[in-house]
Design a protein that fits this description.
Pfam families: ADH_N, ADH_zinc_N_2. 27% of the residues lie in helices and 28% in strands. By secondary structure, it is of the alpha/beta class. The structure holds NADP nicotinamide-adenine-dinucleotide phosphate (NAP).
Length: 316
């Protein structure tokens, strides 16, 4: 079967570690099943894997990809929940492509309970954008950020997959949303989603109740300064650098909560799908590539010049 595979680790030029070619069909352990992938999407996670972050050399070659939607052996249209219980990992779980082969292949094996029915009104491409970036944003806003208790949200680095998801979801939840981006074109696009777009570091008209932080060092001080008393600053990533300075005086004086966040549960992914249908929210898709152009899709994501998700259509 065709697959996109990490065959090396290159911290500086991650695309050099990518091989697109043939891979053996997946083993299917007891309790697992196989999904015929119709659509997948890329995440920054895949770039980290190619850099060797979270994917040590002894696990190579590894099929990349966390996100997919497709068809199970009974013909059901399904979305794949990418978190797999994993006794071999110190966290007790791993993401597809970390220890078990990922979704950027014509077939992917997953535990049966990881399949969620795909609603008819959500396309395969849209569904394939939800399991990592959108689920992460949903979990950050709801379970971690308790956004229902507040009325305003700041999203840093608005162009990213997690960030566009957070903006679209927070707007759909009726919150006042502010978003930063370094790029004026992305600021225009995020404004069209319903956010007030500002330059990185700009003073906001109000302090916010929840900050969605996935950029890290370049934006973290602004996240702290933009937080209202009692606000939650929820961090899921550090694309721009993971060593940031924390003003502890501000942390305690403003009673801020600084929260780490990873992914979300299977039930949250099901709830997210429901919310997308009920409120007519759909993932922001930057671009769609046929699987034969998967290397171009990676290059586009790595360029950082994206607004929303980079999706892969396996039927083309
Ligand atoms: N913990 C989890 O479960 C989890 C889940 C998903 C993602 N993540 C992490 O979250 C991060 C975002 O993921 P993603 O898939 O959304 O990535 P992405 O689509 O590649 O988005 C990255 C965005 O970050 C901003 N950015 C990048 N470098 C920056 C810099 N030096 N200064 C300021 N902004 C910068 C850019 O926004 P602008 O160009 O608009 O400024 C860019 O659009 C990644 O680090 C990823 O590993 C974690």
């Amino acid at each position: 079967m065709r697959a996109a595979i990490a065959t090396a680790a290159d911290p500086d030029q991650p695309l050099r570690a990518l091989t697109v070619g043939e891979a053996p069909e997946p083993d299917v352990p007891a309790g697992w099943t196989v999904v015929e992938v119709r659509a997948a999407s890329l995440n920054h996670h895949d770039i980290w894997s190619l850099r060797g972050v979270g994917l040590p050399p002894d696990r190579l070659p590894m099929i990349l990809g966390c996100d997919a939607a497709g068809v199970d052996p009974d013909g059901n249209e399904v979305v794949v929940y990418p978190v797999v219980a994993d006794k071999g990992d110190p966290r007790g779980y791993s993401l597809l492509s970390e220890r078990f082969p990922g979704t950027l292949a014509e077939l992917v094996a997953v535990p049966r309970e990881n399949l969620i029915p795909k609603p008819a009104g959500v396309s395969f491409l849209e569904a394939a954008c939800l399991p990592t970036a959108w689920l992460t944003a949903f979990h950050m806003l709801t379970t971690r950020g308790r956004v229902a208790e507040g009325s305003s949200v700041l999203v840093q680095g608005a162009g990213g997959g997690v960030a566009t998801a957070a903006v679209a979801l927070a707007v759909a939840m009726g919150k006042r949303v502010y978003a930063t981006s370094r790029d004026s074109g992305k600021r225009e696009r995020v404004a069209a989603l319903g956010a007030t777009a500002v330059e990185p570091g700009a003073r906001l008209p109000e302090r916010v109740d929840v900050v969605i932080e996935s950029v890290g060092a370049p934006t973290f001080d602004h996240s702290m300064k933009s937080a209202a008393p009692g606000a939650r600053i929820v961090v899921c990533g550090a694309t721009g650098g993971h060593l940031a300075t924390v003003d502890l005086r501000r942390l305690f004086a403003m009673r801020l909560e600084l929260l780490g966040s990873t992914m979300g549960t299977r039930d949250e992914l099901a709830a997210l799908l429901e919310l997308c249908v009920e409120r007519d929210v759909r993932p922001v898709i930057d671009s769609t590539y046929g699987f034969s152009a998967v290397a171009d899709a990676f290059a586009h994501l790595e360029s950082g010049d994206v607004f929303g998700k980079v999706a892969l259509d396996f039927l083309h």
